[in-house]
Design brief:
The complex is a heterodimer of chains A (about 450) and B (about 80).
Chain A: H1 2-17, E1 28-33, E2 41-44, E3 49-50, H2 58-74, E4 78-80, H3 99-103, E5 111-120, E6 123-132, E7 141-150, H4 153-171, E8 182-187, E9 200-205, E10 212-213, E11 221-226, E12 233-237, E13 244-248, E14 255-256, E15 265-270, E16 276-286, E17 289-298, E18 304-306, E19 314-319, E20 326-331, E21 338-343, E22 350-351, E23 358-364, E24 370-376, E25 383-389, E26 395-397, E27 406-411, E28 417-422, E29 429-434, E30 441-442, E31 449-454
Parallel strand pairs in A: 2-4, 2-5, 3-5
Antiparallel strand pairs in A: 5-6, 6-7, 8-9, 8-31, 9-10, 11-12, 12-13, 13-14, 15-16, 16-17, 17-18, 19-20, 20-21, 21-22, 23-24, 24-25, 25-26, 27-28, 28-29, 29-30
Chain B: E1 12-19, E2 30-33, H1 38-51, E3 65-72
Classes of the chains: A mainly beta (about 450), B alpha+beta (about 80).
């Protein structure tokens, strides 16, 4: 059913809107398919209405409405239609909805989600509907459901994220919503005035809400990176005096034991199958001289293997998450920092071809097809985020000149969004955007914040 | 439902006819170019079956049916 309604939406969108049937021909022939890059699904999202027979709940209903709208607006796949075009009235129940008023020019909605909310003791309840307005089937309902949660703002926001994910399940073209995912990052907000060298790892919801401190090292805790199942965050800890890899639970802040891999070790990066961690170590030597090189540690077998062997610093390893058989990294072996790709077993080294400058901070997209990176282009005064198409070797610019330095991109698990660090507002903060560079949002304000890492999908 | 072991697949091309009233002619549905993965081919065919009926063809269109070739790209 899910598959079918998605397909129907797709066909209506793409089939009818692309080559219109030629009227003179006896029988039209249409060729189309999934993922043809059609415009977003137009979705009307009237405010969920609080049942006023109960007392209270206005703020919670407001938080639900705000979270739902922001999620859908940022989804990159549905287009929530501006409310100024909506018919007047309250739309809490199916009987309140006149379909023709929602499909009329102006609103021109293809889908409509609406519903009601009420307080039941300490519980906040919504009854929600998603309707397909363009079907000729008597039953327009794609789904209806009731959700119950604790009557707190945090719980209601989470419920709104779950509801938005449910909508994307049906209208998202086969890719799941990311509204329950999180972002880890470095922050200086707890740094005492007399200790300039302190950074701690923090975690927040994907939209910047619910920020909390994860590490309490009172030293440098940097380069966070999520494990495949989100149960652990790997990072670089200086708590023991030298840089070492460390693991911590983002849920209860418990540390996990991790071996000292010798000398200094930084920038852990998990493979998407959760079996290996690529990292940077100074234990390597090149022609007898200590050198920062990429290593791969197998968490199941304990095998520790050196991957690169070249004079010059090799840093910032990231896996191709679609295959786990390639690693991108930054090397200054030819003078300035550039991005290279190497097979995870070694060999087949090649450079991402940029026209000079400095290319750093690679982030491989979940489908393996593109690599986001930060590039100080020759002749430019600022670093900007670009994406590199692995197959065609084309490069597209996402952040623009005049928006400060932009660095450390990280992909959302649906591949539709990126978070990054920028100093465009005067201090370094975390921002997010769609993968086409639009819908830029600032997510952090307190202190300075750095080096975001987007989590993987949350199990449900 | 597609085998969980399948991580990538070629496109599946399905052809079918939409009748004037929007119904998909069940006898017209055929796999024009299968992916070679039976569960995926069946999933594509099922999706077309389940999508019927679609909205009726526009009045201005005078033909009795529209032939559609629709491809499915598999993403996990």
């Amino acid at each position: 059913m899910k598959h079918a309604s998605r397909f129907a939406a797709c066909l209506i969108l793409l089939g009818w809107m692309t080559p219109a049937p030629r009227l003179e021909s006896k029988q039209a022939d249409i060729v189309t398919g999934t993922r043809t890059g059609a415009e977003s699904v137009r979705l009307a999202v009237p405010l969920f209405m609080l049942d006023l027979t109960g007392a209270g709940g206005q703020e919670l209903t407001g938080a639900f409405n705000e979270t739902l709208w922001d999620d859908l607006d940022f989804s990159g796949v549905v287009l929530p239609i501006s409310r100024s075009f909506y018919p007047l009235g309250r739309f809490g129940r199916p009987a309140d909805v006149d379909v023709s008023a929602w499909t009329a020019p102006g609103v021109d909605a293809q889908f409509l989600t609406f519903g009601g909310a009420f307080l039941n003791g300490n519980s906040f309840v919504i009854e929600a509907y998603l309707w397909d307005l363009r079907t000729r089937i008597e039953d327009r309902e794609t789904f209806s459901l009731r959700m119950t949660t604790e009557a707190t703002e945090a719980a209601v926001r989470l419920m709104a994220h779950k509801y938005a994910d449910r909508i994307i399940d049906d209208l998202g073209g086969g890719r799941r919503g990311i509204f329950q995912t999180k972002i880890a990052f470095e922050s200086t907000r707890t740094t005492p005035a007399d200790k300039l060298r302190v950074k701690e790892i923090f975690v927040m919801d994907y939209d910047g809400h619910n920020q909390y401190q994860l590490t309490t090292d009172a030293d440098l805790a940097v380069t966070p990176n999520w494990s495949a199942d989100n149960s652990q965050i790997g990072y670089t800890s200086y708590a023991a005096g030298t840089a070492q890899l460390a693991l911590i639970s983002p849920v209860d802040r418990r540390g996990f034991p991790f071996p000292n891999l010798g000398q200094t070790n930084t920038m852990p990066s998990w493979s998407s199958d959760g079996t290996r961690i690529a990292y940077v170590s100074s234990k390597a030597e090149v022609r007898g001289v200590p050198d920062q090189e990429i290593f791969v540690y197998n968490t199941a077998t304990g095998t520790d293997r050196r991957l690169t062997n070249s004079r010059g610093v090799d840093v910032s390893p990231v896996w191709n998450p679609a295959t786990n058989n390639q690693i991108a990294f930054v090397s200054d072996r030819f003078g300035t920092p550039q991005i290279f790709i190497i097979d995870a077993e070694g060999g087949n080294l090649r450079r991402i071809e940029t026209s000079g400058g400095e290319a750093v901070s690679p982030a491989w997209s979940p489908d393996g097809q593109t690599i986001a990176f930060s590039w100080l282009r020759p002749g430019s005064v600022n670093r900007n985020i670009y994406i590199y198409d692995v197959a065609s070797r084309g490069i597209a610019q996402l952040t623009q000149e005049g928006s400060g330095d932009n660095d450390f991109p990280t992909w959302s698990p649906d591949g539709r969004h990126l978070a990054f660090e920028s100093n465009r507002g005067g201090s370094s903060q975390i921002y997010s955007m769609l993968a086409d560079g639009s819908k830029v949002r600032q997510l952090t304000q307190a202190g300075t914040n750095h080096n975001p890492s987007w989590s993987n999908y949350v199990e449900r | 439902m597609v085998d969980t072991s399948v991580t990538r697949a070629p496109r599946v091309y399905v052809r079918f006819d939409i009748l004037r009233n929007g119904a998909i002619d069940p006898n017209s549905i055929r796999l024009e170019r299968p992916s070679g993965i039976t569960s995926l081919d069946n999933s594509a065919r099922r999706a077309v079956f389940a999508a019927s009926p679609l909205p009726p063809l526009p009045d201005a269109y005078r033909g009795s049916r529209v032939s559609v070739q629709f491809w499915f790209e598999y993403t996990r």
